[in-house]
Amino acid sequence: MMIATATELLGLLADESPESVRRIRHDTAPAEVWLEVLQRAPEHADTVALNKALPLTVLRVLAKSEDSRVRFAVVQKKRLSSDLLTQLATDPDEGIRLAVAEHRNTAQSTLRTLATDSWDRVRDAAERRLEDKSGS
Q: Deepest in the core among 11, 88, 94, 136, taking most CB within 10 A?
């Protein structure tokens, strides 16, 4: 199904029934709808970030959130662009940097940067991914 308006989406966010939660996570909506909801109800950014079909323009906005839970939900998306992963590779949250190091779409140049990270788990993951990429 498709969510047609910000009002409809805000109603789903307020409802919290299992069907509403399912729709929030799986239904599509135009980027304008997601962006309007984020503007009108920024407290729901973490829930919006869980949608599996968010347009890249919405992911770009969410990746700049002050809430690390929102940024972490973004970095979990399989179809992230290389530039978003590069942006998130400098995140202050080490868990987000680790997720970038482990993400399948992270560019080698970003992995090389992460291989010098201050946290050893990020460095190890980046080095392991670089080895995997050079071996394939």
A: 88
- CA-wise closest residue to 41 among 12, 63, 17: 12
- Confidence check: pLDDT of 133 > 90: no
> How crowded is the C-beta side of 115, counted as CA atoms within 13 Å?
13
Cα–Cα nearest to 69, from 90, 39, 48, 38:
48
**How many other CB atoms sit within 10 Å of the CB of residue 115?**
17
How many residues belong to the chain?
136
CB 5 within 8 A of CB 27: no
Q: Can you give the pTM of this predicted structure?
A: 0.93
